[in-house]
């Protein structure tokens, strides 16, 4: 007898995979099954559309579409699927890294955009996020990422804690010492690691990234150290570990707090001794690798609780960097917003957008549990659907709903150092004379009425400044 389907039973979640490649179908189905998803298959567009009307199709919770199946018509197929089932999340799987394709897919109705080869934890996270029953649809993660700057001087943020973290990172880049970067998910740990590598003596050599989340002890050891043929059941070929492959370069181990306890000792020995022994090997190999590790959780309490080995902690943490959460540096949000909008405008299919002060105030008032990455994703989604010349609060309806219309704004525009209102409430630019008057008033207040300094900083003569005061009706005592 078939098991009755309920909303609270995760084992009955169903995903339709539109794909015509058997190997990939088996892989995706296996990964989804481990997270409690049942996969049904459609090998072409016509079958997928027809399946929506079947009894099984009516029980679907999500769709994964391989862009290769419809090709250039992927956006049309997404739009057709959404027109028939508007509430059904659609994830597009593609080998293309083109932002233009991401924009087209999102505008057509895709919920997320996954780039092959897709990591197992990323696929599961995307499915879970797409089907989560909450009011924050616009805050779901987007896979498409805009390249981050690798120069420490280009990193956006003036809060003392963030600048202190960058200073430590920049200083450590010149050494070969292991570095531990701690901070919540989305705070920019990978960005910092890439910047350290790019500024290091190893910059011309390889940088490789390994994520430990969800991996077993055997999987992690095989991935890091490699294995010999026959080392364990299923080891039909010799595998060279990532530490050997990155010889001379930098290895970034993300979510090291997720490494199983039984593997931590071997990793600690490898880092301290500079030697590795593949699984099943008789001899060790010397390795010259710079280790940068990251953790979403503070490791010191884990050491004290016995869930993280002390020897590994001290092996990876000669240099420690803590990246503050975005809620702890909310004064940086306006600058980050403008930075991301500039980067988004550089992507194919996108355009330059401003942002109203009301929208900035709204964005600055949110806690951003997903930190900088979540802010970037929210801006990317808002920019895709914005019809005007500037983002307004209407582009972030879920934020307004969650914060409430009467919620006091945590960070006002003036407190965040913006000072000048460029847009009116309807999203249109204010007249130049009004903006110029505000700039002069701001300068007079900032330099405490010292008109010579005001004129010098504004790049005009004193006579020109006094003329503008008269023309614009500004009281220089204001």
From TrEMBL:
A Pfam match: AAA_lid_14
Coiled-coil ranges per UniProt: none
Positions bearing 4-aspartylphosphate: 66
Gene3D superfamilies in the record: 1.10.8.60, 3.40.50.2300, Homeodomain-like, P-loop containing nucleotide triphosphate hydrolases
Localisation: Cytoplasm
Record bears the keyword RNA-binding: no
Primary location recorded for the protein, binned into one broad class: cytoplasm
Record's keyword annotation contains Nuclease: no
Cross-referenced CDD domains: AAA, REC
Sigma-54 factor interaction domain residues: 155-384
Keywords of the record: Activator, ATP-binding, Cytoplasm, DNA-binding, Nitrogen fixation, Nucleotide-binding, Phosphoprotein, Repressor, Transcription, Transcription regulation, Two-component regulatory system
Recorded superkingdom: Bacteria
Function: Member of the two-component regulatory system NtrB/NtrC, which controls expression of the nitrogen-regulated (ntr) genes in response to nitrogen limitation. Phosphorylated NtrC binds directly to DNA and stimulates the formation of open promoter-sigma54-RNA polymerase complexes.
Protein name: DNA-binding transcriptional regulator NtrC
Organism the protein comes from: Blastomonas aquatica
Gene expressing this chain: tacA
